[in-house]
Amino acid sequence: MGRERKPHIGLFGRRNNGKSSIINSLAEQDIAIVSDYAGTTTDPVKKSFEITGFGPVVLIDTAGIDDEGDLGLKRVKKTLQAIKLVDLAILVVINNQWDEPEQLLVNTFKEQDTPYIIIHNKTDIEEATDLWHSKCLSAACSSILNYNNINGDKEAIIKAIKKAIPESAYTTPSLLGDLISYGDIVLLITPIDIEAPEGRLILPQVQAIRDILDNDAVCIVLKEREVDAFLKKTQIKPALAITDSQIFLKADASIPTDIPLTSFSILLAHFKGDFENYIKGTSKIDELNDGDRILMLESCSHHVACDDIGRVKIPRWIANYTGKKLDFDVVAGLDRVDRPIEDYALVIQCGGCMITRKQLFNRLGPAKANKVAITNYGMAIAYVQGIYQRAVAPFIKSSEAAVHDYL
């Protein structure tokens, strides 16, 4: 399912507090550079490994929150930005420190709704005092641990992680579990075009295949030009058809109207996106005016084809549908959005297969806070191509008339 689907745990604190030593202890191997020199860790570094007794995680080692100088301030900024990526934060403290750097981190954890635990490290040098404990308790953290990075109690940290981390971060709900039943046949329409990776399928298609099998259903995968002949020859009536959003019109024409049809992108939007706000925001397309700016959010960095879905096709389809002169900005991965979010009339997020649910919600948070409409690649495509009601109907358990009222 990819590294980005694993729980993300970040270590934060001042320079030389032993964050990297704790990472090595949890991993039971030297995967982070350890040095007595303050500031060894610069940019946030992701390490993917398995914590014995917990499971696979991505652990983010960050630069010290007390870094100095022009370059140091840039590192501090990246450290604070990394909080948006994590499902759980670990604040590492030594020598009973609790001043502005620690309070800044705690305040940011709270702003980002990020659970956290506190570790008083290097207790062989100085034990944590009762006064320090009282300060930490007032911070409402999940757990406060004493730890010696030479002979630390790793099991105590793992126990605290299990207690604090949200269950949604390490459980994998079903993509299709509420749509299909035992023995159902699901048709996956997967075009093989210039954007398809050589010799393999894209991640949402692979995720769908695995989820169908996990639900003891039958998966049939074929290209769009084979759909008509397959249905005619076999007389099979699938319980559900899922298509690539780029060929929605072809799939809509090929799949009988009594068979539910949606797309991989909309499937992911329902699985991990802000589906309710996507539903509310999609119709904003009808209200766009000349000069409006639209933000396209990709969840990964990828090779850009000449007819790229997010950079070329969707902007073209929306412009043709609205008849308006619109400006489009594209931001890939989790890169910073340079413009103020209020400059945008609409934000269109991809399926988000390469990021966690928390990262996706944090990505969309500024838009929602400023009442900027949001939607999803697949939902926007379905809307401008006139098949929106059919595409979202499988996720709105009601008749077509009721769906129309809901929308």
For the sheet with most strands, the description reads: 6 strands, mixed
Distance between the termini: 32 Å
CATH topology annotation of one domain: Rossmann fold
pLDDT < 50 stretches: 33-40, 398-403
The sequence of SSEs as H and E is: EHEEHEHEHEHHEHEHEHEHHEHEEHEHHH
| CATH C-level class of one domain | Alpha Beta
Please explain how this structure is put together:
The chain is an alpha/beta fold and 407 residues long. Among the domains are: 3-170, Rossmann fold, CATH 3.40.50.300; 274-384, 3-Layer(aba) Sandwich (Rossmann fold), CATH 3.40.50.11410. 37% of the residues lie in helices and 17% in strands. Helix 12 (309-322) packs parallel to helix 14.
Throw out a few tags for this protein.
407 residues; alpha/beta; Rossmann fold; 6-stranded mixed sheet; 4-stranded parallel sheet; 16 helices; 37% helix; globular
Quick take:
The protein has helices spanning about 20-25, 70-80, 100-110, 130-135, 155-165, 165-170, 205-215, 225-235, 250-255, 265-270, 275-280, 310-320, 355-370, 375-385, 390, 400-405, and strands at about 10-15, 45-50, 55-60, 90-95, 115-120, 145, 185-190, 220, 240-245, 260-265, 295, 325-330, 345-350, 375. The chain is an alpha/beta fold. The strands form three sheets. A six-stranded mixed beta sheet has the order 2-3-1-4-5-6, sandwiched between helices. A four-stranded parallel beta sheet has the order 8-7-9-10, with helices on both faces.
